[in-house]
Design goal:
The protein is mainly alpha-helical. The protein has ten helices and six strands. The protein has a two-stranded antiparallel ribbon with strand order 1-4. The chain has a two-stranded antiparallel sheet with strand order 2-3. Strands 5-6 form a two-stranded antiparallel sheet. The protein starts with a helix and ends in a 5-residue tail after the last helix.
């Protein structure tokens, strides 16, 4: 099915269709969107490789895959809603470069939501509904009254998203098309994280498990574990001259589902 027709069936707004079509080739690889019956019939296997030998395959159901994607969708809802509310708040985001960057990030997040909903539906599953959000976390924050707080939370959300997608990659490995789609979103989230950090005058990457200057203490859970220096079973500080700081800046760590939900749960009513 032509993706133009598919997206119209899902009531995607015209400006959204234009953005999707620009990546038509990538999206059409998503197990032939619109071919639900054919997709459902594809056997899903999870194979691991060790010492160049294939391990025994484990099956992953469409329900399992949809659960992972609905988890991602919840995070995308949060980000899209946050940026939408920020842009709708008169005088919050300075005109010029900052406003243009935030507007583009919001545009990306909205389309991540659109895509994930379509893919989940193509699995024969139901996309989760958008939760109600309280970005003040019960009065702890004032992101729509203080631009620096808005940026601080944006950084926390983007850094969480990067680690969350990384943490779920293994659960999508049974289906290369879905894994590819998730990684395509993951890399864009990483670009968002770096861009927001630079808007705050910080480096574009994470040092040790430091949340960075001006970040509320409640966001520390986003950065816990980022001080890991062991990669692939090797303590990288023993084979590098850059030291622990340089090593931790060079590698990013995953967050598991429970860790992410604990973070996001602060803002879900």
């Amino acid at each position: 099915m032509n993706i133009f027709k598919l997206l119209k069936n899902y009531d995607v707004k015209p400006e959204g269709i234009e953005n999707f079509i620009s990546r038509r080739d990538a999206f059409e690889k998503l197990v032939g969107l619109g071919k639900k019956a054919a997709f459902a019939a594809i056997p899903l296997s999870l194979a691991g490789v060790a010492a160049n030998n294939k391990a025994s395959a484990q099956s992953a159901t469409s329900e399992d895959l949809a659960d992972v994607l609905n988890f991602a969708l919840t995070l995308e809802y949060l980000e899209a809603e946050f940026y939408t509310m920020g842009l709708d708040t008169n005088g919050l985001i300075p005109a010029g470069k900052d406003h243009s960057i935030i507007e583009l990030i919001k545009f990306h997040e909205v389309h991540h939501v659109d895509l994930l909903k379509i893919v989940i539906d193509s699995l024969g599953a139901t996309p989760v509904s958008k939760p109600d959000f309280d970005f003040t976390a019960g009065g702890a924050f004032n992101p729509f009254g203080d631009y620096q707080q808005f940026l601080a939370l944006a950084q926390a959300f983007e850094d969480t998203g990067v680690r969350a997608y990384k943490g779920q990659a293994g659960n999508l490995i049974s289906n290369g098309d879905l894994l590819t789609a998730a990684l395509q979103i993951h890399s864009v989230e990483a670009r968002h994280a770096s861009e927001v950090r630079r808007l705050r005058g910080l480096k574009g990457w994470i040092l040790q498990d430091q949340r960075g200057e001006g970040m509320p203490a409640q966001t520390q859970a986003v950065y816990n574990g980022e001080d890991n220096v062991v990669q692939g079973g090797v303590d990288v500080t023993t084979v590098s001259l850059v030291g622990a700081d340089g090593v931790t800046e060079s590698f990013d760590e995953p967050l598991n589902k429970n860790e992410v939900l604990t973070i996001a749960g602060l803002f879900i009513v």
